[in-house]
Automatic annotation (TrEMBL):
CDD domains: SGNH_arylesterase_like. Signal peptide: none annotated. SUPFAM superfamilies: SGNH hydrolase. GO terms for molecular function: hydrolase activity, acting on ester bonds. Gene3D superfamilies: SGNH hydrolase. It comes from the Bacteria. It holds the Pfam family Lipase_GDSL_2. This is Lysophospholipase L1. Residues 12-198 form the SGNH hydrolase-type esterase domain. InterPro entries: Ester_Hydrolysis_Enzymes (IPR051532), SGNH_hydro (IPR013830), SGNH_hydro_sf (IPR036514).
């Protein structure tokens, strides 16, 4: 863990929702807008926030078409690259809802369990301590009628997305992690029914900051 007088290290590990994908434009929100940078500003100098969001990242799936999207395969390396990590903010699952993976919310929860178990293990950190964990369930998907992403998702995707919060809440309880339901704070953009508009970024950052402070004990 972080040495005395050093800022609390916070690793935000996720997909395009963490990267800051701007719906409809395939570009990234700037530092003054996206929630991860707003989180850093809200937390202040006592914290160091690291962004690790990859567009299309899944919990455990290899992507034969797009490649290099397996979150489980990435997580240990990310932790080692940014160690010491005091707090891990983990938000994945949206891409697992794609039609081609054909996963239920329960199956996605089982996959997420692998990541959480990995996160609970010590790394090469000199102190050998795993980070505290904030598990976030992504908000439910929207209606894909007219969405540029309609070819990637289906009605089952929407239905299962609404079940993730309960599945993730149970996982957080099982592993002693903090939990946040993103869907209680933000809603997906009507532009593509997956990503978030600019006005969703600040309230979400504030909610995450509140949970991170609790985990840090400040």
């Amino acid at each position: 863990m972080t040495a005395a007088n050093e800022p609390v290290s916070v690793l935000c590990f996720g997909d395009s929702l963490t990267w800051g994908f701007k719906p409809g434009e395939r570009t990234r929100y700037g530092h003054s807008i996206r929630w991860t940078r707003r989180l850093a500003k809200a937390l202040g100098e006592g914290f160091y926030v690291v962004e690790d969001g990859v567009n299309g990242r899944t919990t455990v799936h290899e992507d034969p078409m797009r490649g290099d999207k397996n979150g489980f395969a990435h997580l240990a390396t990310a932790r080692k690259a940014h160690m010491p990590v005091d707090i891990l903010v983990l938000m994945l699952g949206t891409n697992d809802l794609q039609s081609r993976f054909n996963m239920s919310a329960g199956a996605i929860g089982s996959a997420m369990s692998r990541l959480i178990f990995s996160a609970c293990q010590s790394t090469d950190d000199p102190h050998g301590q795993p980070p505290k964990l904030l598990l976030i369930s992504p908000p439910p998907l929207g209606d894909f009628d007219g969405s540029p992403l309609a070819c990637m998702f289906c009605e089952k995707s929407i239905a299962e997305s609404k079940k993730l919060k309960d599945v993730y809440a149970a996982l957080a309880s099982q592993y002693g992690a903090a939990f946040l339901d993103a869907g209680s704070i933000v809603s997906v953009s009507k532009v593509d029914s997956v990503h978030w508009d600019a006005d969703m970024q600040a309230p979400f950052a504030d909610a995450v900051a509140e949970e991170v402070r609790k985990l840090a004990g400040v």
